[in-house]
Amino acid sequence: MVRRVEGVQIERAADEILVLREESLEAHALNQSAAAVYDLCDGNASKSEMAAEIHRRTGLPADEEIVDLALSELVETGLVILDDPEFRSAVTRRALIRRLALSSTLALMLPVVETIVVPSAEAEPRFSTPTPTPTPTPTTL
Fold it and tell me: Model-level pTM?
């Protein structure tokens, strides 16, 4: 089974989730289908239940390989832990689009987890505002 890691802050916006990992200063944005899987990572839900939830929320086919794609991204970012350490999903976004003959609209609904690094409060700004240089005044001789 699969479960979420502890020590994260979760913000919900519309159908997406923003997860902030405080110890790493990383923020992860989960789109609607990745959020559906993340919500069910409680140690009890099966892949077929996750696939059905993705279908209910997004209209994507209830396919367990879509769940595998979501889980691989969630595991890679450290947001969930799998009990099966040998789990390696070989499914790719491109292969799913071809096999399921997804329209471009549905292809955009496939699971995506985007990661950004949040600067710490102590971090100095990398860019500073340039100080204006005085313009020379012409002199007459």
Answer: 0.79
